[in-house]
Specification:
Length: 232
Amino acid sequence: MSLKEHVMVIKQRDPAIKSSIEVILYPGFWAIIFHRAAHRLYKRKLFFLARLISQLSRSLTGIEIHPGAKIGKRFFIDHGAGVVIGETCEIGDDVLLYQGVTLGGTGKDAGKRHPTLGNNVLVGVGAKILGPFKVGDNSRIGAGSVVLDEVPDNCTVVGIPARIVRRNGENLLKHYEKLDHRFPDPVSMELCALRIRLEALEEKMKLAPPRRPDAGRAPFLSEESANHSETK
């Protein structure tokens, strides 16, 4: 990606920018420039120099991108503080990350340890994507989500752990639309469903006819009958 294209991407993605010269104040701008240089050294197996540049970039920008990560065109990190991108990450074209995002591993895998992001993926503030799986094209990861499994194309996932709430434009939680949550947490939605069912059962119990106090109990023997049985 050329420097001119990089500047255009930032201007398109961030409405707060007023002039092209402001891009030099964006930590994401410098993080990507440093990464391009570090990645070239990494491919030449100059690992120490590559890591040296990536660590310098981290100290200057607050963004840590391992030099082994593969990043596509028009990649943009908005704000950027606390972003971590692991060695075996693969990022497609037109991907947008917000601050606090981690593209990491679980510590249980060898070789390919980090996620692959398809094209036109958006990852919200503070989201964690952990493991060697793919997030499909045009998918959205809600802020604060923890993604531990593969995400198909054209999906929105939220929650801890993240679950799919929208696929191909269809809301998968239609029966919760009356709840005022733009990106509802699926676990909270299940708890709401249980509460609604419980309230319905309580209403049915109130409408049911009262039972006799002794209904359903086994009949007791009188004292005289009990004594007669013991005599026998």
